[in-house]
Design brief:
Elements lengths: L3 E3 L3 H5 L17 E6 L4 E6 L5 E3 L3 E3 L5 E3 L2 H27 L15 H16 L2 H19 L9 H13 L8 H5 L3 E6 L9 E2 L4 E3 L13 E7 L2 E6 L8 E3 L3 H13 L4 E4 L2 H12 L1
Parallel strand pairs: 7-12
Antiparallel strand pairs: 1-4, 2-3, 2-13, 5-6, 7-11, 8-13, 9-10, 10-11
Length: 290
């Protein structure tokens, strides 16, 4: 992995490409998305290799001055493992969208295997832990802590020891035996929500994991906390309580519901809102600026 390191992988962004023919299948760098950027307050059409990255995002300098990357291979390995599963899901959505409503009940779609479920849960945790908002919040807390002790500003994230500590902290969040994100999320059921045709789409952001609970705190330990991840422009992954009666793949026939999902996703953003449809991104940008 070189200098440019993506916290929103090109593999993931390809699923929201304006020219996506087969979502999440490796293509050329011409794959583009519409993107609203908070800092510039602009909406532009941009190649997926040119957004969702920072220089040396996963790297820090070792004792000999060389850049050390401790997690790029693990991330690439996870993406290679989860890619076939996401393609299966996306192909199933395409099949459902292209089949007349009366005939859809005749389509036999297999549930995810235990192994595929594990890959999906690990994928959710990766985006839960490695998003830039969490990273920047942690960096600020450490900088404030050092400032409180020193009485003056330190180098903060520019120091490799601090950056290494932050990266390792993010890697280890939720891996404790008593508080294990994987074990908690594996207790939830996976559902795939989609619109019955391709006339609308889902967006995503640089903080793509959304937690929702009707009342009270929305921590993942609560059984009724729902967790959403826009998986591609065609569908949203939902981790919810097992006893809700949904089918594994269920249509969301009302465009207003899709719009509500997209608003919820957009309001969770940090700096970027991404999608295939310029007008939709414009609408979501207006929503977050109100």
């Amino acid at each position: 992995m070189g200098k440019r390191q993506h916290y929103l992988s090109q593999f993931y962004l390809r699923g929201f490409s304006t020219d996506s023919i087969s979502s999440n299948v490796k293509g050329k760098s011409k794959d583009k998305v519409w993107c609203y950027h908070k800092d510039s307050d602009e909406i532009i059409k941009i190649g997926i290799n040119n957004i969702g990255f920072r220089n040396y995002y996963y790297s820090f300098k070792g004792d000999e001055g060389h850049n050390i990357n401790v997690i790029d291979e693990a991330i690439q390995s996870l993406e290679n493992q989860v890619a076939p599963t996401i393609k299966i899901i996306d192909d199933n959505i395409r099949l459902l969208q292209s089949t007349p409503l009366k005939s859809r009940k005749k389509i036999s779609i297999k549930s995810l295997t235990p192994e595929q479920r594990e890959f999906i849960i690990q994928y959710v945790i990766m985006y839960m832990n490695m998003n830039p908002k969490l990273r920047d919040d942690l960096t600020k807390k450490l900088d404030d802590f050092e400032y409180n002790i020193l009485g003056e500003k330190s180098l903060g994230i520019k120091r490799s020891s601090t950056k290494k500590a932050i990266i390792e902290t993010l890697i280890n969040i939720g891996t404790d035996k008593k508080i294990n994100f994987f074990n908690i999320l594996m207790q939830k059921q996976i559902y795939i929500g989609y619109y019955p045709n391709n006339s609308t789409s889902f967006i995503t952001t640089d903080n793509p994991i959304v937690r929702f609970r009707k009342n009270g705190k929305n921590g993942i330990k609560y059984y009724d906390t729902e967790i959403y991840l826009p998986l591609t422009q065609r569908c949203v992954l939902m981790l919810v309580d097992k006893d809700n009666g949904f089918e594994n793949y269920f249509p969301i026939p009302d465009k207003k519901r899709i719009s509500e999902f997209n608003k919820l996703i957009a309001l969770n953003y940090y700096k970027l809102i991404v999608g295939r449809d310029k007008k939709l991104i414009e609408k979501m940008a207006d929503t977050v600026k109100k």
